[in-house]
């Protein structure tokens, strides 16, 4: 209750100032407009007094208005308390008016409203009354202060609760799910090595009524790269994916493909969320689906790239996880292996790991003065801004201007200046995942 306590203090100072001036000058009236404006509770001398300080006082008390936080069980209590305080103030006001009347009675009419010294006995009574009032106002002020402190405390608690609930619960659930997944996986592993009967049961097709991803189709003998329906989370929906059953043993669930520029990848948050394109040619599977696929099992990521000179290279990351939309589809990638270079962890300043997803209409990047998604015409886990972007524009040949094409910063020769300021483009790009424990 800073303002009120300051007020009380300044009222006291004002009163003291009044006494002082009155003692020194018989006719000066106390006027302090700034203090009057700033100070809703005032106790002041209304004119000259005798040297003993016996003089009438006026106490001005404003109506009370205190703003309270909502949604609080204790709020009604606080409210009643404030109501009580209000009533106290009113009664105080009233007794103060009584006091004023007494003061008026003792006023010398010949002096045109200016206060004159009161007769001795009446003056003492007034003085006592003023002290009473003073202590009552003091008490009131400290009561108000307590009430305000309590409100502040409760408001603080409320804010903390909000923060805990909103920000941390999903994080917590995510980590628990990841933990459970790894526990289940390790139990699975133990079982298939130690329990031959279980193994027989497992090899029956009935065990695979739910296919979580393409590796499950591979396990039951599917060997053709094609569309398959998967259900990564039994509680959630199933959807079609394209399975690559050839690359490095097969069993890959394809998340993204660029082959001919037939699909426009300059899209907004909503499109990247649900996915777009044609699963047999160019597409983005969709961030929600990628989240479901990567939270149900520990996944590895493989990226395949081919340039217009026919050079084909790949990058392998031994972990790949995309968080939920609530956590803005944050990317988690593990250690690199492969031939294309580790462009996702390019340097200290260009690192896509742990970055949020950004689209031209949703800026979650680390570039403070603009939106990387807007500048580079795509949705991606931008840093500030990029050392890799597989969702850039599809250029059918080298291009000039903003480097907003498909880009992999560790590609051989890509950072060397080309005559005319041309930039290299890519003919094909593909991202796909497979469970870490999968053995083709
Ligand atoms: C009292 O105040 C008046 C007006 O402010 C001034 O003219 C006068 O000189 C003061 N008298 C003393 C004794 O300070
Ligand atoms: C998973 O949970 C178990 C039991 O609570 C705990 O001992 C283990 O450290 C957790 N593992 C991880 C990776 O959080
Ligand atoms: C792709 O879509 C964006 C946004 O709708 C649009 O501005 C752009 O012209 C499109 N590009 C092509 C090649 O159609
Ligand atoms: C299904 O998954 C989506 C995307 O992660 C999520 O938003 C939704 O709440 C899930 N639904 C259920 C029933 O779990
Ligand atoms: C990278 O992969 C190759 C081929 O699978 C393997 O021989 C090599 O040990 C891996 N390197 C690292 C650092 O994991
Ligand atoms: Ca930004």
UniProtKB/TrEMBL annotation:
Chain segments carrying region Disordered: 102-128
Matching SUPFAM superfamilies: Fibrinogen C-terminal domain-like
InterPro entries with a match to the protein in the record: FIB_ANG-like, Fibrinogen-like_C, Fibrinogen_a/b/g_C_1, Fibrinogen_a/b/g_C_dom, Fibrinogen_CS
UniProt entry tagged with the keyword Coiled coil: yes
Subcellular location: Secreted
Keywords, ordered alphabetically: Coiled coil, Disulfide bond, Glycoprotein, Secreted, Signal
One record GO biological process: platelet aggregation
Signal sequence annotation: 1-23
Chain coiled-coil ranges: 75-102, 130-164
UniProt xrefs under NCBIfam families: GGGWT_bact
Assembly with partners or alone: Homotetramer; disulfide-linked.
Protein name: Fibroleukin
């Amino acid at each position: 209750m800073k303002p009120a306590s300051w007020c009380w203090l300044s009222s006291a100072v004002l009163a003291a100032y009044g006494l002082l001036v009155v003692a020194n000058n018989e006719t000066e009236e106390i006027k302090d407009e700034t203090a009057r404006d700033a100070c809703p509770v005032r106790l002041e001398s209304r004119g000259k007094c005798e040297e003993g300080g016996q003089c009438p006082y006026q106490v001005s008390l404003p109506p009370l208005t205190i703003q309270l936080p909502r949604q609080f069980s204790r709020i009604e209590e606080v409210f009643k308390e404030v109501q009580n305080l209000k009533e106290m103030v009113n009664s105080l006001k009233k007794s103060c008016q009584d006091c004023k009347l007494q003061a008026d009675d003792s006023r010398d009419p010949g002096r045109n409203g200016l206060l004159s010294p009161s007769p001795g006995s009446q003056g003492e009574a007034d003085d006592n009354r003023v002290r009473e009032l003073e202590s009552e106002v003091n008490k009131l002020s400290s009561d108000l202060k307590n009430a305000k402190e309590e409100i502040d405390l409760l408001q603080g608690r409320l804010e903390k609760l909000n923060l805990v609930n909103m920000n941390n619960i999903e994080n917590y659930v995510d980590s628990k799910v990841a933990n459970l997944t790894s526990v289940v996986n390790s139990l699975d592993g133990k079982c298939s090595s130690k329990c031959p009967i279980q193994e027989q049961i497992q090899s029956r097709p009935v065990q695979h009524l739910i296919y979580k991803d393409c590796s499950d189709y591979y396990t039951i003998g599917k060997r053709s790269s094609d569309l398959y329906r998967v259900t990564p989370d039994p509680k959630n929906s199933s959807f079609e994916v394209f399975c690559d059953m050839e690359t490095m043993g097969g069993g890959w669930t394809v998340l993204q493909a660029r082959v001919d520029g037939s699909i426009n990848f300059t899209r907004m948050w909503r499109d990247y969320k649900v996915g777009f394109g044609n699963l047999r040619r160019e597409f983005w599977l969709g961030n929600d689906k990628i989240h479901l696929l990567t939270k149900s099992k520990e996944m590895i990521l493989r990226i395949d790239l081919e340039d217009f000179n026919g050079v084909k290279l790949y990058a392998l990351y031994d972990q790949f996880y995309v968080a939920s939309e609530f956590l803005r589809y944050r990317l988690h990638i593990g250690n690199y292996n492969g031939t294309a270079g580790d462009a996702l962890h390019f340097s200290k300043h260009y690192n896509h790991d742990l970055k949020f997803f950004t689209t031209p209409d949703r800026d979650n990047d680390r570039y403070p003065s603009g939106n990387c998604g807007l500048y580079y015409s795509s949705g991606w886990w931008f840093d500030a801004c990029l050392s890799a972007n597989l969702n850039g524009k599809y250029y059918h040949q080298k291009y000039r201007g903003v480097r907003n094409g498909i880009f992999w910063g560790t590609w051989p020769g890509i950072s060397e200046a080309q005559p005319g300021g041309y930039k290299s483009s890519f003919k094909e790009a593909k991202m796909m995942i497979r469970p870490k424990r999968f053995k083709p």
